[in-house]
Amino acid sequence: MDIQTKARARCHWLPDLDNAATPRYQALVDRLATDIAAGTLAPGERLPPQRLLADALKVTVGTITRAYREAERRGLVEAKVGSGTRVRSLASDAPAFHHLSHAAVGSVDLSLSVPIPHPMRAQQLSRVLDGLTHRPGAIDAALAYHPEQGSQASREALAGWLTGQGMPMPADELILTSGGQHADYLALQALVQPGEAVASAALTYPGMIAASRQLGLKHVAVPMDAEGIMPEALERLCLQQKIRLLYLMPEHNNPTGIHMGQTRREAIVEVARRHDLLLLEEGVQFVTAERRGTPFYRLAPERSLYIFSVSKLLAGGLRLGALRAPANLMARLTASLRAQYWAVPELMASAAIEWLASADAKTLIDWQWQEVAARQRLLAERLNGHQISAHPCGFHAWLTLPEPWRAVDVVARAAERGVTVIGADPFCVGSQPAPQAVRICVTPPAERAQLDEGLIRLAALLDEEPRRISPLV
């Protein structure tokens, strides 16, 4: 029996390419699309390995590789290291992240990056709303239409607050958005065409992964080191393919907590200018001025966008963010915003920004930064001896698991002990294999004692022996 006959006998899917009028790789993709639509290939079904299918069809492995890559770009399949290429399931289109707690009742929830619960949040917002009802013109302004960017008054007030925080930017460079996630989506929708490539650190914010997938963009992973994105790796990727936009979290990466130094930032700007990359900087994970590096919009203002949100400082439910953009990109962004949303409601914008600029908010934010730092110290103490990466202002920490622990086992066994954490999978870009690590958020518990109890349980778990999995025979 020859190689082709043996290969054909092992392939459960064999497209007929004999009479194809297009190149064979393209014909294979078209047949794949047809068979998926007809139900011949079911969601989640694994395609034949590339070498095997190449032998069966008597084509080169390069032809199969090109076809599988094109099928992945078109959203027909998804590839994952260790599990091959599979027909994309409907479930894979759902965002791999959530903003509401999935913790069981009574569990210590350490899964969400949210502001620390405190009664003064509701008290302070109540005072702001009461003040708005008595301010002349405030209610009339809330009832009127405003420009796509948001009202001039609200943008000037926010620009003034940011300037006071060491982040100077004129109001004309700001677009008000419905939170940071909306700003992410708006930037991608307006500035990147379907099928084009965007890049980010190999471990990044799941909302960016979901937005890229929803918009039909190719999301490329850039290798990381102790400072995040590696400029030389980015350079190599840019030489291999056209990348339109680079997504960055330089202050502290979500999920790893990595901070990017000044020299690294300048090196990335050099790569961006050589290859004409847009830079989208995530600033939602806001940090204190003394711990903040130079934002990219100050290093390369002509190509940099910056995202801000009140979600981590005040409250996630307010849904107010801002996108800073250079003048040469503003028309495309506002046109997209006008088509999808028109403008952020002025009532929401004025209330959130007035609260943000108040003395009350300063008291709240200062308390939260102090409490976060104390909680990070507590985490380091309870998990002493383990590999932890975190930022002093960060809402989360990244725990790299010791061998032979696996993230899925830690997440499951932690849940059994009444602690909810998240593994690495939702943060992985593309087909990158997930590291054996979990993200631990220190902010969801209202009381530090609750956090302490959860950390004690986690530490005890890690001191145990992992479950042994019997080998298959």
Number of strands: 17
Structural class, please?
alpha/beta
Averaging pLDDT over every residue, what do you get? 91
- Largest sheet report: 7 strands, mixed
Query: Which geometry do the CA atoms define?
Result: globular
Radius of gyration: 25 Å
The strands making up the biggest β-sheet line up spatially as 4-12-11-10-9-5-6
Low-pLDDT stretches are: 91-95, 469-473
Strand content: 5-15%
Number of helices: 17
- State the share of residues found in helices, binned by percent: 40-55%
User: Ends: how far apart?
Assistant: 28 Å
Assembly form of the protein: single chain
Q: Would you kindly provide a written description of the structure presented here, covering whatever features stand out?
A:
- The structure is a single chain.
- This protein is α/β, with parallel strands linked by helices.
- Helices cover 43% and strands 14% of the residues.
- It is globular and about 85 Å long.
- The relative contact order is 0.13.
